[in-house]
């Protein structure tokens, strides 16, 4: 009985134990299920947060309207993603990449001022070394030398490098907090995704800024003079249009000042163009200081400047121009061991409601400027319609237009006048001087006296000299046989060169190219230069003569005797012919002084082994006297008038 009861009790105990085990297992299973559900919920929340952040990033990439806030939005999303207080974007502050300057800084809910710091001994340095930092705790302890990290009490730090699509490392993006953070391990690649996207946008921004800067630079270069930094002629004329419009529509009064430097060429000729350029740069600064901030100062080209005086009548404009005149007077330019003083001629024109157009205003200012130059330089001349000097100047400008059109339309024709030997049997049998004439629009022939001086004054003479050389060489190559112009003692053509051509470095190369093009023997070409141009451009003239004589050309010194230093310079100029000025020939029969002067010229030329040519010989009496005086060759109406070049003949 007792044994049966014990068995029953034992069975009940076993059943209770089994039931307890089942209950415990069910409890543990439920507990695990709750934990799994909690973990799953947390993971779902993390994934949803990451998804939202990535969605925002994608939206930012596509929505152009957020470009200005793109970087700030990225920092806000990153801070939310890591549940961090601080986030910043930092770019390299120097070429050594050892300092960072922040581009955007988020602190709590606000964006704060940017700052700069050294990378040394910071977690940022490890990020730059391509070690993506994920420090969940004790960040300040790990980097004890990072003062900023310690002062802020940073515990957690997360960072990734900014590497642009072109492979260039630009800086880094970082997230920090004062508390320990243990983000999901999947957030590390998300941080790098953000870094890559920020780098892409940063590269785009920098390229956009570079393009904008380049556009600004091109715009500046298009409207400004590269040497002085002042606005150029094109921009000046644009502003003139605006000024003229305000004068006509609003009855405003302005002044136009046109300035041309005096004696500037001396600096170029003496010290070279580098010195001239430096003078212009220094003077431009002084002129800028001497003008009002409201006025416009421009370099119009070469040594010419223009100023627009805004909102002032002509008397005020004159006072302002006087200030510029004195500024140039007081200016001293030093170059090596030389000091130069220059002046300026100024033309002043009122701009009011009666002014015609910009072209006429500039033309009037230019005319007034050159009248100031003609009246003695270093002065101001105010334009007025009834000014006789201005009227004469307008006539010059009309001639400039005529000359330019004649060059373009090929309306310059060549004449030749013979030169004959009266003493030397070895002189060329056919010796001519080339002379130039211009045909007007009606076909009438104009003598050189009507256009040569204007061409020289307005820098057209070099182009005209080149035209004459080309035409002469072309004629010789087609008119004469190779045998005729191959013998240097049979043929000689003299061509006049201006002082401007002598000082132009391109002329020697031009002549050599044309000699080669037309297959001309240099020994049959003589270049005539005036005594005045040779002396005033002595160094350039000497260099040119020597270079041309090396290839076989010869030279004649024209109008000899008109200068005051003739003999002093003659011994240093290696010419072949001395052309005695015609004024000594005209009254030769009755002027004993002229005979004595010519005789002295012949004696000096003989010592230097230079042949003499007498110009303007018009009768036999003059010829006989010149023979007695020992002149070698003569030229004038007595032996032949200038005639057009003969028609070309075929060989």
What can you tell me about this protein's structure?
This protein is an alpha/beta fold. Helices cover 49% and strands 21% of the residues. It contains 22 helices and 25 strands. The strands form 4 sheets. Strands 15, 16, 17, 18, 19, 20, 21, 22, 23, 24 and 25 form an 11-stranded mixed sheet that branches. Strands 1, 2, 3, 4, 5, 6 and 7 form a 7-stranded antiparallel sheet that branches. It is elongated and about 185 Å long. The N and C termini lie far apart (164 Å). The model has no long low-confidence stretch (mean pLDDT 84).
Gist of the model:
With about 650 residues, this protein is of the alpha/beta class.
Structural descriptors:
49% helix; 651 residues; elongated; eleven-stranded mixed beta sheet; single chain; alpha/beta; seven-stranded antiparallel beta sheet
Poorly predicted spans: none
Mean pLDDT: 84
Q: Supply the helix-strand structural class.
A: alpha/beta
**Distance between the ends:** 164 Å
Helical fraction equals 40-55%
Specify the overall morphology.
elongated
């Amino acid at each position: 009985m007792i044994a049966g009861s014990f068995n029953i009790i034992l069975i009940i105990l076993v059943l209770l134990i089994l039931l307890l085990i089942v209950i415990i297992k069910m409890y543990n299973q439920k507990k695990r299920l709750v934990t799994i559900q909690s973990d799953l919920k947390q993971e779902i929340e993390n994934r949803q947060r990451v998804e939202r952040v990535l969605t925002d990033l994608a939206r930012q990439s596509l929505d152009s309207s957020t470009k200005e806030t793109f970087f700030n939005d990225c920092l806000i999303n990153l801070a939310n993603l890591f549940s961090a207080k601080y986030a910043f974007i930092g770019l390299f502050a120097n070429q050594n990449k050892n300092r960072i300057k922040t581009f955007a800084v988020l602190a709590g809910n606000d964006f704060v001022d940017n700052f700069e710091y050294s990378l040394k001994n910071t977690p940022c340095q490890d990020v730059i070394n391509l070690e993506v930092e994920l420090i969940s705790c004790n960040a300040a302890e790990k980097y004890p030398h990072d003062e900023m990290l310690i002062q802020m009490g940073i515990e957690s730090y997360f960072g990734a490098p900014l590497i642009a699509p072109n492979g260039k490392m630009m800086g880094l993006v970082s997230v920090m907090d004062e508390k320990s953070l243990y983000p999901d391990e999947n957030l590390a690649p998300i941080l790098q995704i953000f870094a890559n996207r920020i780098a892409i946008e940063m590269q785009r921004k920098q390229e956009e800024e570079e393009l904008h800067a380049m556009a600004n630079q091109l715009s500046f270069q298009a409207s400004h003079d590269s040497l002085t930094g002042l606005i150029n002629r094109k921009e000046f004329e644009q502003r003139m249009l605006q000024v003229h419009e305000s004068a006509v529509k609003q009855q405003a009064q302005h002044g136009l000042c046109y300035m041309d430097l005096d004696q500037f060429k001396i600096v170029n000729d003496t010290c070279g163009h580098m010195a001239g350029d430096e003078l212009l740069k220094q003077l431009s600064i002084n002129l800028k200081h001497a003008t009002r901030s409201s006025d416009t100062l421009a370099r119009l080209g070469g040594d010419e400047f223009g100023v627009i005086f805004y909102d002032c009548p002509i008397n005020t404009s004159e006072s302002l121009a006087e200030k510029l005149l004195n500024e140039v007077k007081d200016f001293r330019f030093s170059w090596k061991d030389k000091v130069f003083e220059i002046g300026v001629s100024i033309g002043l024109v009122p701009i009011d409601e009666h002014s015609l157009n910009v072209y006429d205003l500039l033309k009037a200012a230019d005319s007034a400027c050159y009248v100031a130059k003609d009246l003695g330089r270093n002065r101001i001349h105010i334009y007025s319609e009834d000014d006789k000097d201005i009227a004469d100047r307008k006539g010059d400008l009309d001639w400039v237009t005529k000359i330019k059109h004649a060059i373009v339309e090929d309306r310059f024709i060549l004449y030749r006048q013979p030169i004959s030997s009266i003493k030397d049997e070895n002189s060329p049998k056919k010796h001519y001087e080339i002379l130039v004439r211009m045909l007007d629009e009606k076909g009438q022939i104009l003598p050189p006296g009507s256009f040569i001086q204007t061409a020289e004054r307005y820098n057209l003479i070099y182009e005209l000299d080149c035209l004459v050389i080309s035409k002469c060489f072309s004629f010789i190559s087609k008119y004469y046989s190779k045998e005729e112009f191959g013998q240097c003692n049979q043929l000689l053509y003299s061509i006049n060169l201006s002082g401007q051509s002598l000082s132009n470095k391109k002329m020697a190369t031009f002549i050599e190219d044309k000699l080669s093009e037309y297959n001309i023997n240099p020994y049959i070409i003589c270049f005539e230069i005036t005594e005045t141009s040779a002396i005033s451009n002595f160094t350039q003239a000497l260099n040119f003569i020597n270079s041309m004589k090396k290839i076989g050309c010869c030279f004649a010194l024209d109008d000899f005797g008109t200068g005051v230093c003739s003999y002093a310079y003659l011994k240093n100029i290696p010419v072949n012919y001395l052309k005695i000025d015609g004024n000594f020939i005209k009254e030769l029969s009755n002027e004993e002084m002229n005979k004595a002067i010519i005789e002295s010229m012949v004696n000096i030329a003989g010592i230097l082994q230079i042949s003499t040519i007498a110009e303007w010989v018009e009768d036999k009496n003059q010829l006989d006297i010149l023979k007695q005086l020992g002149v070698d060759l003569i030229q004038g109406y007595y032996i032949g008038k200038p005639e057009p070049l003969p028609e070309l003949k075929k060989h």
